[in-house]
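1st attempt posting a full record on here, be nice pls
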Amino acid sequence: MADTTTPARRLPSVPRAWLASIVIVALVALFDPPQAWPTVTFAANALLHTAPFILFAVFAVAYLKATGAETLLARAFEGRELRMIVLAALLGGLAPFCSCEVIPFIAALLAVGAPLSAVMAFWLASPLMDPAMFAITAGTLGFDFALAKAAAAIGLGLLGGFGTMVLARTPVFVDPLRERPQIGGCCGVKKPFSGAPVWAFWQSADRRETFRDTALDNGLFLLKWLTLAYVIEAVMLRYVPADAIAGVLGGDGITPVLLGALIGAPAYLNGYAAVPMIDALLAQGMAQGAAMSFVLAGGVSCIPAAIAVWALVKPRVFSAYLGFAFVGSVMAGLAWAAIA
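the predicted structure (as tokens):
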């Protein structure tokens, strides 16, 4: 007898970021109906304000991906160790490479003897800044803050790289790799980067397709996370007492900077969504130094960035990675507080 039952149809899944935005607006509508529409309009106006920066970021990253500029990453790990550390920090802090995207590449480099110091410099700088994040940060928090964060990302990479080189013979960094590196991550597994960039990518159908797909993927990614972030910003500005923020994260001295670094890790959504959150916190009295330490410590310790390190090295090296991140974030926060 034939089975005539009809298989259950699966409903299309809604990305969590969109779902969270809908839930937050729905809760505002339920408990404070007059504030629901202002919350929506605040988020929409904020998106319109940052739209030019979003578009620039989307097309800039798509161009770099389509040309194969990722292949330049391999050149940072050639030559003398000091040179490698500097180039790895610069490339990690300025290039649009996802930390987990390069796990197979880093695994291959470590397997053939690339110094952990250069890898550490790249790991620390990579999740903190890229062209898209610079554009979004400049559009929301100002060009000076974005430039300072980019400099801090490079500086943090240099701190970790040179620190690892100096401490290379200590028990923390001896035999640093896992026996079987867990190659994978949020971006999937890819082959190590090779070849040379093709700057005139439009001459190749495959590269045009890469440009289109990357632009669409990044555009949707930024749209969903920034929508959530601006909805959260609207709610924070409306319901979180400014005195409470100013009392904890405001003022001068090292305490707000330390708290910013400590709170940054658990409160972080991702590098893009954190920008409107910081904007709201600054409006409510958060100190500039605390804002800088927040975005740096949170960026390094967020799940995608941490997975990239945890997958390949032993826990003691991972702890050193977090330690460099915390110390560097506090130093950068204090420096920014002094000049902002």
